[in-house]
């Protein structure tokens, strides 16, 4: 019997966790502490697996059913939904970790021991004032030369030619170092 919102709301916690089935392998797991989790049991490559679909009430019944359908579609294409979910999460984490500002700050932190404190602070101030507002929030793999050039031209229009020249060196060093690091991480 398919679940309804009323039946879900009336599900009370008990001494042991129990399941309320919705069909198609999907169920609501009700824990003793009252937490409710959407789960989907499926078979892939001859093995039984369980996919977490979300937490009720954040993920509603209709949302959970949509996620079940998406998982079934992946299974029909011979793709493990659990593996696909992990890959998407990893890609999201990697994209967040490769934001230009984060990479530039990490690069600067690594250079701190070899640069004079005054020069290091000057580099950071230049980046914070001129580059981070323009491209700091973008993933480093999406930043192309014209976009960086546009940010540098704004500094040049102020008449800060030497600052422009030095700023041009810093992001390119950061991007090259990051590209090497990302390739090395992908190889492992």
Commentary on this structure:
The structure is a single chain. Helices cover 58% and strands 16% of the residues. It has a 4-stranded antiparallel beta sheet. α4 packs antiparallel against α5, α5 (117-135) packs across α6 (145-157) and α6 packs antiparallel against α7. The protein has helices at 5-9, 61-76, 81-97, 100-111, 117-135, 145-157, 161-187; strands at residues 18-23, 26-30, 36-44, 47-56. The chain is of the alpha+beta class and 188 residues long. The radius of gyration is 25 Å and the shape is elongated. The longest helix is centred in the C-terminal third of the chain and has 27 residues, at 161-187.
In round numbers, the mean pLDDT is 82
Largest beta-sheet details: 4 strands, antiparallel
**Record field, number of beta strands:** 4
Structural class: alpha+beta
CA-based shape: elongated
Return Rg in Å. 25 Å
Instruction: Kindly report how far apart the N and C termini lie.
Output: 47 Å
């Amino acid at each position: 019997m398919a679940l309804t919102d009323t039946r879900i709301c009336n599900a009370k916690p008990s001494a042991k966790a129990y399941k309320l089935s919705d069909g198609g392998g999907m169920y609501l797991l009700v824990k003793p502490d009252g937490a409710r989790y959407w789960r989907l049991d499926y078979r892939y490559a001859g093995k039984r697996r369980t996919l977490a679909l979300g937490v009720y009430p954040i993920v509603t019944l209709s949302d959970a059913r949509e996620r079940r359908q998406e998982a079934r579609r992946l299974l029909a294409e011979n793709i493990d939904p659990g593996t696909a979910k992990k890959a998407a999460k990893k890609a999201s984490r990697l994209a967040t970790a490769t934001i230009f500002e984060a990479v530039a700050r990490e690069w600067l932190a690594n250079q701190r021991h070899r640069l004079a404190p005054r020069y290091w602070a000057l580099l950071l101030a230049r980046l914070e004032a001129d580059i981070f507002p323009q491209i700091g929030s973008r993933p480093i793999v999406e930043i192309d030369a014209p976009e960086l050039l546009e940010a540098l031209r704004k500094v040049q229009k102020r008449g800060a030619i030497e600052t422009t020249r030095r700023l041009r060196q810093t992001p390119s060093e950061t991007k090259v170092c990051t590209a090497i690091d990302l390739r090395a991480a992908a190889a492992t």
